[in-house]
Amino acid sequence: MHPILKLVAQRIALGLLLLLAVSLLIFLGTEALPGDVAQAILGQSATPEALANLRESLGLNRPAYVRYFDWLGGILTGDFGVALTNGQDIGQAIGQRLGNTLFLAACAAVISVPLAILLGLIAARYNGRWPDKVISGVTLSTISLPEFVAAYFVIFLLTQVFPIFQPVAMVFPGMGFWERLQAVALPVIVLVLVVLAHMMRMTRAAILNVMQSAYIETAELKGLSPMRVIWQHAFPNAIAPIVSVVVLNLAYLVVGVVVVEVVFGYNALGQYLVDHVAKRDLPVVQAVGLIFAAVYIGLNILADVIGIVSNPRLRHPK
């Protein structure tokens, strides 16, 4: 077997094993949550008999390992079960909100990825000079802020000082594309601020590392402009680590937006998860947690595969 195919197969197998282990951790973690599901559904005035009957009907009296394998089997067949608090089909509810999460992540990625690469190239071009220091200082300042602090600062700035946007990101079925874009503008700005610095710093570091190569010196001796040397010679050879860090940040944009969604009241998976954690609705928490884990692990595998494929020593083994 070709070394690349072997490594890719190993990464996929490890990813599946990791996802299985994460599913077990999610199940055990939700089982350890304080409180009683039956009590949360029926309220404090429920009688012991009513609580016992509800626990029996929900299958909560069965051993934990039996419930885990039943839950895992349902997930593998596409059956996420129903929410305990309202009886709604979890798969259908997740499908409605997953589109909103992916739309928010895509909008943030479309802005942050090219902007981070451009700023990284400029910082590398003017390494150690004032453009590099300004870009590095500003981006590191934004990434140092907790997400909720950045969110409330953006809300104050763009809804109170400069009343341009609404503070709540309200979306609903049937909204037009431009209306939806305007609704998610504030959370997109916050997410861009959060992920920009990491990608920019990696782009800058990768370019500066390649700039030490002999062929870069040859290109400079030919009289090419510094920006042309970076764009045509350094950037193509630094693309592998840049793409890897971009993919990892895309994973964050999908699974790490819970705080942003809650702050802006955005009806997506993060908000859905938080709402049902408060209600101790275990099937919902388990399903959303597993989807987040699958997305994160899947994109990490993609980043590993890109790194493997971009390695010329593996593409052309001796």
UniProtKB/TrEMBL annotation:
It is found in: Cell membrane. The keyword Cell membrane applies. Residues 98-303 form the ABC transmembrane type-1 domain. It is a multi-pass membrane protein. SUPFAM superfamilies: MetI-like. The keyword Metal-binding does not apply. This is ABC transporter permease subunit. Its main location: membrane. Keywords: Cell membrane, Membrane, Transmembrane, Transmembrane helix, Transport. Pfam families: BPD_transp_1, BPD_transp_1_N. InterPro entries: BPD_transp_1_N, MetI-like, MetI-like_sf. Belongs to the binding-protein-dependent transport system permease family. It comes from Paragemmobacter ruber. The chain crosses the membrane at residues 102-124, 145-165, 177-197, 238-264, 284-309.
